[in-house]
Amino acid sequence: MSRKLRLGVNIDHVATIRNARGIAHPDPIRAARMAAEAGADGITAHLREDRRHISDDDIDRLAAQIELPLNLEMAATDEMLAIALHHKPHAACIVPEKRAELTTEGGLDAHGGENHLRRYVDEMVKAGIRVSLFIDPDESQIRSARRLGAPVVELHTGTYAEMTPGSDAWAQELERIVQGAALAEDLGLECHAGHGLSYDNVGAIAAIPNLVELNIGHFLVGEAIFGGLDSAIKRMRALMDQARAEATGSRSA
Ligand code: PXP
Q1: Residue 104: pLDDT band by 50, 70, 90 thresholds?
Q2: 49-69 pLDDT, tens digit each
Q3: Sequence spans of domains, the chain
Q4: Under DSSP, is residue 243 helix (H, G, I), strand (E, B) or coil?
Q5: What's CA 128's distance to the chain center, in Å?
């Protein structure tokens, strides 16, 4: 029997929309609660150094109020390490971070950065946090993650997601992920994947038997607009019509 594939819901872009107005709505913690009710297995949030979406307060509230396992995405910096050690989330995924990027571009260089990363992995593993490294599906990166003692790797599916399904390049990239996931499992690592996954491209990734978890955010938050805009407009319309009817009724009474 095949293992159930876990779904980690990334709520960063609920915070992106909230921050566009600088007010409390929409609250990513409310989204995390909905995700739990809808069957998510975990909540993922990336506390970026520039705090462009998720804030420190969001992490405090996620840790205090949400029962699902929290996967904190973080850069390998002392500031983020201190936050992770303070909250001790279920998991921490170390990602590369460049200030000017729109999203996480490419995987972490675990191979070239072994010396820098070792202290972060060691300290978090010692604190009981499941440390994951977000890497490209390359043999050298996966072997470095193993050498570093991280129990989990998350394979970056962004390149795959940008390719035309069915093209030779797409098939090659998919095969790289298939091989990477198999190698990770052989080495005793738990293997996750994520970035850029959508209804159109998740199937081939979800079918890879060695994968244990997918982390998906931007598409879900975007798609929720189309699933929910209709009912939001209808409710607003009803509230307006009701208020107008009541006002007209009280004037004519
Ligand atoms: N996994 C990691 C490590 C990420 O950094 C991200 C993006 O924050 C995701 C998964 C989710 O990617 P997307 O928002 O494109 O679904």
Answers
A1: confident
A2: 999 999 999 999 999 999 999
A3: 6-248
A4: helix
A5: 20
Has 173 been annotated as catalytic?
no
Say which CATH topology domain 6-248 has: TIM Barrel (3.20.20)
Mean pLDDT of all residues belonging to the chain: 96
Q: Could you tell me the two tokens for 6?
A: 């876990």
Residue from 73, 97, 190, 213 carrying the catalytic annotation: 73
Tokens linked to 53 = 């979406």
Ligand 1 and 71: CB distance under 6 A: no
So what's the pLDDT on residue 100? Answer: 72
Q: Is the CB of 53 under 6 A from ligand 1?
A: no
Quick check: 45 and 108 in contact, CB under 8 A?
A: no
Say whether pLDDT at 1 is over 70: no
Q: Is the CB of 216 under 6 A from ligand 1?
A: yes
**What is the token pair recorded at 110?**
């675990």
- The pLDDT value recorded for residue 49 is 95
Give, for ligand 1, the residue of 13, 17, 73 to mutate: max count of ligand atoms closer than 8 Å to Cβ.
Answer: 73
- Look up residue 216 and give its amino acid: I
Query: Does 249 score more than 70 pLDDT?
Result: yes
Q: For residue 196, which atom of ligand 1 is closest to its CA?
A: 15
Average pLDDT on 119-134 reads 98
Instruction: For ligand 1, say whether the CB of 96 is within 6 Å of any of its atoms.
Output: no
